[in-house]
Structure formats: C-alpha cells, structure tokens
Specification:
Layout (H helix, E strand, L loop, with lengths): L1 E5 L7 E5 L9 E9 L3 H6 L13 E7 L12 E4 L9 E5 L3 E3 L6 H5 L2 H14 L6 E4 L5 H12 L3 E5 L3 H9 L3 E3 L9 E6 L5 H6 L2 E9 L12 H5 L6 E4 L8 H12 L7 E6 L3 H9 L6 E5 L5
Parallel strand pairs: 8-9, 8-11, 9-10, 11-12, 12-13, 14-15
Antiparallel strand pairs: 1-2, 3-4, 3-6, 3-15, 4-5, 5-7
Helix pairs in contact: 3-4
Organism: Streptomyces bikiniensis
InterPro entries: ADH-like_C (IPR013149), ADH-like_N (IPR013154), ER (IPR020843), GroES-like_sf (IPR011032), NAD(P)-bd_dom_sf (IPR036291)
Keywords: NADP, Oxidoreductase
C-alpha cells in the first residue's frame, strides 16, 4: 500500500512510500482510509520527525477487517477514527475504542474533520462546566478547534468573543454567533472563562481580562512563542484567577466521536472545511496549514474517494 512518510524538509514535509499493510492488534480494526485531516500541530512535528514517526490521527473510511477479539464494527461499516498514528495511508489500524460508526447522513469528508479538533472542543467545554450564561473569550479561534468551540458554546447559551487575525478568518465565527475581534487587546472584558491557545504575548493580555475568581484554560501555543507572566503585574490584575493547563488526549475516543457524529447528523454541528483535495496534494496542504493559509480544517482524499 501507499503511505505518506516524513521527509524532514520544510517545503515538502511528506512523500509517498510503498509499504506493507499494517497488521492490527487484537483490539484494532483495519480501516481502508477514504479521507484524513491533518492538524496544525502535526505540521510542527514534521519539522524534526523522530525515528519511525508516522503522522495521521484523524481518519474516515471503511472497515475491511474486524478486530480479532470480536469487538467493534463489522466489515463494511463506515467509520470515523482517531488512531494514535499512521492515518495518512491507504489503510490504518485503529483501536475499536477510538472508532464511531457513521450514519448515511454524514459523509467521510465531514467525518474526517471531526476527531482531534472536535474532541478537544467537547472536552474543553466540559472542563469549564455548563456554558450557559458564561462570558467566554477564545483566542486562536479560526482553526478547527475554534469553530467547534464557538458553535457548541453559543448553542449552549454562552456569550463568545472570538479572536482572529483578520476579518476573513472571523467571518464564519460571526455567522455562528460570536463577537469577533482581531486582537486580544480589542476584547471587552471581564470574562468568566478564557480559552487561550496562542501563548506568547496573548496569554498575559487575556489573563488580565478574566473576572475576579474566573478561569483561564491554556490549551495551546499556536504562536510558538513561550508566554511570560509578571508576578507583580498579576497583583494589579484580577484576584483569585485560576490558570489551568489542558490537553485533550486520553482514550477511549469512541464515545466523544459518536457524540460529534450525532450532532453533525442532526444539523447541530457544522465542520468548517477550508480545503478538500486529493492526498497527492498533501505536502502543499501541510505547508499552507502550517502558515495559517487555511481557515478551519483541511481534508485529503485517498483512492476512489478523490
């Protein structure tokens, strides 16, 4: 089969290689991948890939071999999955606890855009509690996570202010019901909750806009610049603010994937897909994703799905 493997080159981060099909573990199903969605964090890992690194965590396709232990979906079932690695290939071995069955109303393109970003959004909102009535600030909002958080939080009754670099990148967020600003300094606080994903100078600016007793959840560093906090500046800011570190990871992912699929099928969640292309264009797409030239998610199609 064909698989995309890292090259270590910034301009062409992946290339095709002919490799054997993966051999699933007893609790894994073999999935014929029809679509996959890279994440921006994966583009950073590709800059200095470790030995044996096989990217690919968000896939949709067809089960062609059931799990040997008898669990999981049957052969011929359409699924979305979140494997730990190896999804940018014609076939992927996916733990059955990280699969969800796709109904007829959810196509593979939208399904592939769900896993990492959608699971992160669900778990972020669970971490802050019931969104209804909360004033929420979301930085780095124009990526996949930001779109899901905005749609879910607004639908649940939150008042969301979304920070994006440009009006173009914020247009869809405004349609979803967010107030869009183009810098943290422009956001009008105080906020009950700040969801901060850019790091660098944005984090202390956002922290200063939290209400006394509020919470800042730090879940990314998209700027790739470490944040610096001044203790004495904090003394002059809001009191009793909680700063929480958040990382989405922790299997099983299947129940959250099933929730996301159900919301899409019911028309209550709409993946923002900025590009759909053949996987032959993966290298170019990864560069554009890394350089923030794609709004929302990018989805690549393999084989007959193209």
């Amino acid at each position: 089969m064909q698989r995309l493997i890292p090259t270590g080159e910034a301009a062409r981060p992946v290339a095709f290689a002919e490799v054997p099909q993966p051999v699933p573990e007893p609790g894994e199903a073999l999935v014929k991948v029809e679509a996959f969605a890279p994440n921006r964090g994966e583009t950073f890992l590709l800059e200095a890939p470790g030995p044996g690194f096989l990217p690919g965590k968000d896939v949709a396709g067809l089960v062609v071999q059931e799990a040997a232990d008898g669990t999981g979906p049957a052969v011929g079932t359409r699924v979305v999955g979140h494997p730990a690695r190896g999804g940018w290939a014609e076939y992927a071995a996916v733990p059955v606890h990280s699969l969800a069955v796709l109904p007829d109303g959810v196509d593979g393109v939208r399904a592939a855009a769900l896993p990492l970003a959608g699971i992160t959004a669900l778990r972020l909102l669970r971490a802050v509690g019931a969104p209804a009535g909360l004033r929420m600030l979301l930085t780095g909002a124009s990526g996949g996570v930001g779109h899901y958080v905005t749609e879910l939080a607004v639908a649940a009754g939150a008042e969301v202010t979304a920070v994006t670099a440009t009006p173009e990148r914020g247009a869809r967020l405004a349609e979803l019901g967010a107030r869009v600003v183009h810098g943290v300094a422009e956001a009008t606080g105080p906020f009950d909750v700040v969801l901060e994903s850019t790091g660098g100078p944005d984090l202390p600016l956002a922290l200063a806009k939290v209400r006394p007793g509020g919470t800042l959840v730090w879940f990314g560093q998209a700027s790739r610049v470490p944040a610096t906090l001044d203790f004495f500046a904090l003394l002059g800011g809001p009191e009793r603010v909680t700063i929480r570190h958040f990382h989405y990871a922790g299997a099983p992912y299947g129940p959250d994937l099933a929730t996301l699929v159900r919301l899409v099928d019911q028309g209550r969640l709409h993946p923002e897909i900025g590009r759909t292309a053949s996987w032959e264009l993966t290298a170019d797409t990864l560069v554009d994703l890394r350089e923030r030239r794609i709004r929302g998610k990018a989805v690549l199609l393999t084989g007959e799905a193209r």
